[in-house]
UniProtKB/TrEMBL annotation:
Designated name of the protein: ABC transporter permease
UniProt source species: Gryllotalpicola protaetiae
Bilayer topology term: Multi-pass membrane protein
Family: Belongs to the binding-protein-dependent transport system permease family.
TM ranges: 12-32, 118-140, 152-174, 194-214, 252-273, 298-324
All copies of domain ABC transmembrane type-1, residue ranges: 112-321
Subcellular location field: Cell membrane
Keyword Membrane recorded: yes
Coiled coil: none
Record keywords: Cell membrane, Membrane, Transmembrane, Transmembrane helix, Transport
Example of a GO cellular component annotation carried by this entry: plasma membrane
Length: 332
């Protein structure tokens, strides 16, 4: 019951956040000097064609009417224009790309499996390796293992994602020929091809992000191992492994889980650099291509979708807090 109340409360917060993000995005892309009708008018754009484009897109309405139509389209769908030339956009309608003649929602759903595959595998890899590395470094502090792990972590933090990706392609793709250098295979078509095509993007992202997690886990675990409750656990005769895993690491993971939720939500909204380097057509590539084409409807739709994923990731983090920390559960 307590968990259900927590989820309901957080869902209300998610809706409020999404409304605020939607309003800000709407203001930035539709109410500032940029003119979506001008971009959709084509060439030559006569005054008559521009007026028809404004009417078709609903830009002849006052700003609050446009915003309401935008929100209504997300909930119940939307129709652009009237008569035989009208274009229906089913809910949730994040807009319609008149350049690609496709609803933005369909574009996002078509590209999302690619981005989800990259983000999901990389997240598992960087979380496990980062936490394990940080824990080992904390337990063997100031020893050779600690110095080696922190040296690798500094290299990971310092290295740009595109550079790591290109070095991996050069080594494992061209020099050794072990793995494909780019592209994507759907899991349903070829599971082995799906894995081999994603291994390099996973490794590149994990190398960079795991470094941050290793450093954070190390500092948090060192702090926890110096607390009074850890000394009490040892005085009661609890084994060192149980002290570290059951008490120290569990509390040290709270900020790590917070960071993990934010990183995963952000990455699901588009692994822009990795998708470009490894020639994968995910949401990040869709966003970059849309910016280059000035396709504002797609830019707005992808921005809102990314905000939705980050809000959901934060909701999941709040739920996980109660699982790993009894103090948080009791406070609720």
């Amino acid at each position: 019951m307590r968990i259900a109340r927590l989820i309901a409360t957080r869902l209300v917060g998610v809706v409020v956040v999404l409304l605020v993000v939607t309003a800000i995005t709407f203001v930035i892309f539709y109410l500032l000097p940029a003119n979506p009708a001008q971009l959709s008018c084509g060439k030559p754009c006569t005054p008559e064609n521009l007026a028809r484009a404004k009417d078709f897109l609903g830009l002849n309405l006052p700003w609050y009417g446009q915003f309401w139509a935008f929100l209504k389209g997300i909930v119940v769908g939307r129709t652009f224009g009237t008569g035989a030339g009208a274009i229906a956009c089913a809910a949730p309608c994040f807009g319609y790309s008149f350049q690609l003649n496709t609803p933005v929602t369909e574009l996002i759903l078509t590209r999302f499996p690619v981005t989800a595959s990259i983000a999901g595998g990389a997240a598992v890899l960087w979380f496990v390796s980062g936490v394990a590395g940080g824990a080992i470094a904390a337990v063997w502090r100031r020893r050779a293992a600690d110095r080696a792990i922190m040296t690798v972590a500094i290299a990971g933090v310092s290295a740009p994602a595109y550079l790591v990706g290109m070095l991996l392609i050069l080594l494992f793709g061209f020099a050794l020929g072990w793995l494909p250098t780019g592209g994507y295979e759907p899991f349903g078509d070829d599971p082995v091809g799906w894995f081999t095509h994603l291994l390099l993007p996973w490794t590149a992202l994990a190398f960079i992000s795991a470094a941050v997690y290793a450093r954070l886990t190390r500092s948090e675990l060192i702090d926890q191992l110096g607390q009074d409750y850890i000394r009490t656990a040892r005085a009661k005769g609890l084994g060192e492994g149980a002290v570290i895993m059951r008490h120290g690491l569990r509390n040290a993971l709270i900020p790590v889980v917070t960071l993990f939720g934010l990183d995963l939500g952000t990455l699901l909204g588009g692994a822009v650099i990795s998708e470009r380097v490894f020639s994968m057509q995910g949401i990040g590539a869709l966003l970059i291509d849309s910016i280059n084409r000035l396709d504002l409807q797609v830019v707005v739709g992808v921005t809102l979708f990314a905000a939705f994923l980050i809000a959901i990731a934060n909701l999941l983090v709040d739920i996980v807090y109660g699982v790993i920390d009894p103090r948080v559960r009791a406070a609720r």
